Amino acid sequence: MPDRRVALSLLAHPDDAELVCGGTLCRLVDAGWEVHIATASPGDCGTVDLSQEEIAEIRRKEGAAAAAVIGATYHCLEERDINVVFDRESGKKAIDLFRKIAPSLVFAHPRLDYMLDHEQTHLLARRAAFAYPIPNSSKLPLIEGSSIPWLYYCDPISGVNPYTGVMVEPDCLIDITEQCDRKTEMLVCHASQREWLRSHHGMDEYVEAMKRHSAMRGEKMGVKYAEAFTQHMGHPYPTSDILSELFGNK
């Protein structure tokens, strides 16, 4: 178990964390961890009738409100929605964020997901997780105890590999039955997204879709609701399954 109990989710947009790892973040807070929720973009294209600046301001506030439900802190790299790219400047922003937080546990999008913002943010999180403890990777001071964190990839949207249509088989399932009400409370903070999802995605069941997916993952471990993760096992990342050690697994 790490001396620093600091968890960070770096995902593409406001509401992504609430959908794919919010229950597990709740459990970490309950276990005494410091939790940070970061997005690459403020979601400035998530609207049908507002300007980029107007919707971005709304969604930043929604992200902060959702994080506050569990006493977490919200951050945004201020990349642009549907234009997140893995390059030197965005990578520097991500490394600097990690440097300020010094997470020992990180949640990221999977390498393959339904939209490229997710896949590009995956790369930003993976590089920052590896690079931030390197002294010369950032001009920001290195916090004592900084080290390569445990890295877990969340479910892709709908749990499906978008290139094959095949359901992803996770290697870690976390029971979030008792946390689902708080996960829902976090998700409904993103009120601006209900109309957007109905208009663009044909999805008018924001919360119910989340619960159905959590129930599908929960069925695999014999509980009402669960979240699914795949751990990054490459050198030199920690390879013990810290989530299962903390909360049990299938």
Verbal overview:
The radius of gyration is 17 Å and the shape is globular. It has helices spanning 16-20, 22-30, 52-69, 88-101, 116-131, 180-188, 192-201, 206-221, 242-247, and strands spanning 6-11, 34-39, 73-76, 105-108, 150-154, 172-175, 226-231. A seven-stranded mixed β-sheet has the order 3-2-1-4-5-7-6, with helices on both faces. The model has no long low-confidence stretch (mean pLDDT 94). The chain is built from nine helices and seven strands.
Strand residues, percent: 5-15%
Query: What is the N-to-C succession of helices and strands?
Result: EHHEHEHEHEEHHHEH
Q: Estimate nothing, just give the exact number of structural domains.
A: 1
Radius of gyration: 17 Å
Continuous helix count: 9
State the share of residues found in helices, binned by percent.
40-55%
Q: Biggest sheet, strands in spatial order?
A: 3-2-1-4-5-7-6
The second-level CATH architecture is: 3-Layer(aba) Sandwich
What name is given to the CATH topology? Rossmann fold
Poorly predicted runs are none
Number of strands: 7
Structural class: alpha/beta
State the name of the first-level CATH class: Alpha Beta
- CATH superfamily annotation: LmbE-like
